Amino acid sequence: MNLVKATGTIGGLTLVSRAAGFAREMLMSRVMGASWQADAFFVAFRLPNTFRRLFGEGAFSAGFVPLYAQRLHGPGGQAEAKHFSEEVLAVFAPTLVLFTLLFEVIMGPFVALLSGYTGEQLSLATFLTSITFPYLVLISLVSLFSGILNSLARFTAAAFAPALLNLAMLSALIFVPDGGHITATALAIAVTLGGVLQLALLMAACKRAGIVLKWRRPRMTPGVRQFVRVVVPATLGAGVYQISAFIDTFFLTRIGTGAMSYFNYADRLKASYRSTLVPDGDGTRRTLAGSLSVKAPLVGGKVAGVIVEGLREAMATQATMLDEWTARQA
């Protein structure tokens, strides 16, 4: 697959996922609003996503993909690369399951410490997090299968997979529009179901590519040790950055009802703005966010300038939304 086609495939499907995510947030803001139930859900949704960035994206972008590609293009070819994948899966999957089970045991005290919630809100946040946390195992395995497919230059399934989570959550909002506890629970179930759908899609895509991984007994083989040596420093480095997500949650949940929700909606608006860059007909690139449209020639530094300017305006929008919420609370 040539570079232009690969870029178009990834970019187009990523745009679909972003559009579905933006629609999800729009509908959620109407159904759930900035209620305390919405705050509890966003805490439950943020926890597995923070660990996903740490274990899934961080570990596999830094460690698995380069090592898999090295073996794929080496003397052993696809057979050696497949064997390496099975060795990593045999160690990585049980580790994730054990980590998830441990977290399920300490979920109540951890959520209470992080959020400062008490009473009914703490009970709901803990319950929702216990439903969403297995998403960590599922999405981390999705990262493994995505790495395999990307190394084989098969980008379609991996690029489309994130849209399945957004579609699952959209479905929950459409079919359970009651709000409050009921919709929050439906959304939490949709998160885990979305992870199941993503994993099923990626496994099916790997099977079509001729890659069917077998379960092996966990062993610290030379390949796994090499993987660990690469991944541990990258994970620790990513961990420093991800601490900020816990700090955000710690303070937002203590500001008052609605702060977590408003921040999430503003953050999604910023993310949608930042990620939506589409070619225009006159050789320029247009950045779309609501009614705002910015153009610049398709020349490296100019495009970077557009992105920076877009981030500035999106961050200003986020600050305005938080200021308005603070004023209402006063």
Secondary structure layout plus pairing:
Layout: H1 3-31, H2 36-72, H3 77-105, H4 107-115, H5 119-132, H6 135-151, H7 156-175, H8 180-208, H9 222-255, H10 259-275, E1 277-279, E2 284-289, E3 292-297, H11 300-329
Antiparallel strand pairs: 1-2, 2-3
Helix pairs in contact: 1-7, 1-10, 2-3, 2-5, 2-6, 2-8, 2-9, 2-10, 3-6, 4-5, 5-8, 6-8, 7-8, 10-11
What does this structure look like?
The protein is mainly α and 330 residues long. It has 2 domains: 3-256, no CATH class; 276-330. Helix content is 80%, strand content 5%. The protein contains 11 helices and 3 strands. It has helices at residues 3-31, 36-72, 77-105, 107-115, 119-132, 135-151, 156-175, 180-208, 222-255, 259-275, 300-329; strands spanning 277-279, 284-289, 292-297. It has a 3-stranded antiparallel β-sheet, covered by helices on one side. Strand 1 and strand 2 form a beta hairpin. Helix 1 (3-31) packs parallel to helix 7. It starts with a helix and ends with a helix. Mean pLDDT is 79; it is low at 277-308.
Determine the fraction of residues in helical runs and give it as a percent range.
over 70%
End-to-end CA span: 57 Å
Kindly provide the radius of gyration, computed on alpha-carbon positions and rounded to a whole number of angstroms.
21 Å
Tell me how many strands there are.
3
Question: What is the helix/strand order?
Answer: HHHHHHHHHHEEEH
Largest sheet: 3 strands, antiparallel
* Sheet with the most strands: spatial strand order: 1-2-3
How big a fraction of the residues is strand?
under 5%
Q: What ranges have pLDDT less than 50 throughout 5 or more consecutive residues?
A: 277-308
- What number of domains? 2
By secondary-structure content and strand pairing, the structural class works out as: mainly alpha
Shape: globular
Give average pLDDT, whole number.
Answer: 79
